[in-house]
Amino acid sequence: MILSQAPVRVGAGGYLFCHSRAYGFAYHTGDMAPRTRPADILQREIRRIDYLKQRLLADLAEGEKILVRKGPPGETDEAVRRLLAALRAIGPVTLLRVCEAEADRPP
C-alpha cells in the first residue's frame, strides 16, 4: 500500500495531514485533532488511496477524460513524453500539459 509508511500528522490549524514518504506528497484528510486520533484514521486513508488509485487506473484505461499535468518548473519535453508513454501503456490517454510561459516559449 502507498500509505503503509505514511504517518498522519497534525498540521496548521490542527488539521490532520497524511504524508507519503514513498512519493513525497501530503494531503488534508478532512479531520482535525484532537477530535480524531491520527492512528484511528490511517487504515481509512489506506483504503481511500487504494480506491482512488483503482478509479484513476480505470479512467486512464477508458480514455474518456483528459489528464492535466502541471509539472515542475523546468520539466523537459522528454520527461513529459516518458510520462505520456507510461500512461498510454494503460489506455488511450489524452494528456494536457500546463506550464508557465517563458521568453523562448510564449503561451
The N- to C-terminal Cα distance equals 39 Å
What is the overall silhouette?
extended
Q: State the share of residues found in helices, binned by percent.
A: 25-40%
Strand order of the largest sheet: 1-2-3
Number of helices: 2
Number of strands: 5
| Helix/strand structural class | alpha+beta
Q: Give helix and strand order, one letter per element, not per position.
A: EEEHEHE
Low-pLDDT residue spans: 1-6
Residue-averaged pLDDT:
85
As a whole number of angstroms, the C-alpha radius of gyration is 17 Å
Taking the sheet with the most strands, its summary is: 3 strands, antiparallel
Strand content: 25-35%
Secondary structure blueprint with pairings:
Blueprint: E1 8-10, E2 15-20, E3 25-32, H1 38-62, E4 66-70, H2 77-88, E5 94-98
Parallel strand pairs: 4-5
Antiparallel strand pairs: 1-2, 2-3
Structural key phrases:
single chain; 107 residues; 3-stranded antiparallel beta sheet; two-stranded parallel sheet
Task: Characterize the structure shown.
- Helix content is 35%, strand content 25%.
- It is built from two helices and five strands, in the order E-E-E-H-E-H-E.
- Strand 2 and strand 3 (25-32) form a beta hairpin.
- It is of the alpha+beta class and 107 residues long.
- The strands form two sheets. It has a three-stranded antiparallel β-sheet with strand order 1-2-3, covered by helices on one side. It has a two-stranded parallel ribbon with strand order 4-5.
- The protein has helices at 38-62, 77-88; strands at 8-10, 15-20, 25-32, 66-70, 94-98.
- The N and C termini lie far apart (39 Å).
- Residues 1-6 have low confidence and may be disordered.
- The protein is extended, with a radius of gyration of 17 Å.
- The longest helix has 25 residues, at 38-62.
